[in-house]
Amino acid sequence: MGISLDSLRDKNLMQLKKLNIALFPVRYNDKYYADALSSGEFTKLGYYSDICVGAIACRLEKKEGGAVRVYIMTLGVLAPYRGLGIGTRLLNHVLELSSRQNISEIYLHVQTNNDDAIAFYKKFGFEITETIENYYTNITPPDCYVLSKLLPCVNSKK
């Protein structure tokens, strides 16, 4: 009875779609799923006792000067399975992968009233760097915070 992670592929994409419908008030479009599939190891499904109960989906973004940053599009775990370390395992996977691949920053958007998510990310060293008003449509409140974590670049020249 453990936690395991699996890569996202065409054959298990429907599991991510079903999780997102259960977890988030937002409906994601085809581009979201294309980005999740193309991010390779940066998108993972989380299983508890072989049941898919969570996922992290990321998009890789190139910045000026060639630096790459990771955008966490979604990270969620079904309510009955929260507190078991699944979200931590998913986020740690992306943090470790990012540090090995010379990624400069990881960031995400969080609804301003999502205190649990904000506290979760702060435990991992993320900081609120910006507030965006009316970021979301059709959900209340519509405002979000940008949470960022800068990573020490492994290959940076000092």
From TrEMBL:
<keyword id="KW-0808">Transferase</keyword>
<dbReference type="GO" id="GO:0031415">
    <property type="term" value="C:NatA complex"/>
</dbReference>
<protein>
    <recommendedName>
        <fullName>N-acetyltransferase domain-containing protein</fullName>
    </recommendedName>
</protein>
<dbReference type="GO" id="GO:0007064">
    <property type="term" value="P:mitotic sister chromatid cohesion"/>
</dbReference>
<dbReference type="Pfam" id="PF00583">
    <property type="entry name" value="Acetyltransf_1"/>
</dbReference>
<dbReference type="InterPro" id="IPR051556">
    <property type="entry name" value="N-term/lysine_N-AcTrnsfr"/>
</dbReference>
<dbReference type="InterPro" id="IPR016181">
    <property type="entry name" value="Acyl_CoA_acyltransferase"/>
</dbReference>
<keyword id="KW-0012">Acyltransferase</keyword>
<dbReference type="GO" id="GO:0008080">
    <property type="term" value="F:N-acetyltransferase activity"/>
</dbReference>
<dbReference type="InterPro" id="IPR000182">
    <property type="entry name" value="GNAT_dom"/>
</dbReference>
<feature type="domain" description="N-acetyltransferase">
    <location>
        <begin position="3"/>
        <end position="152"/>
    </location>
</feature>
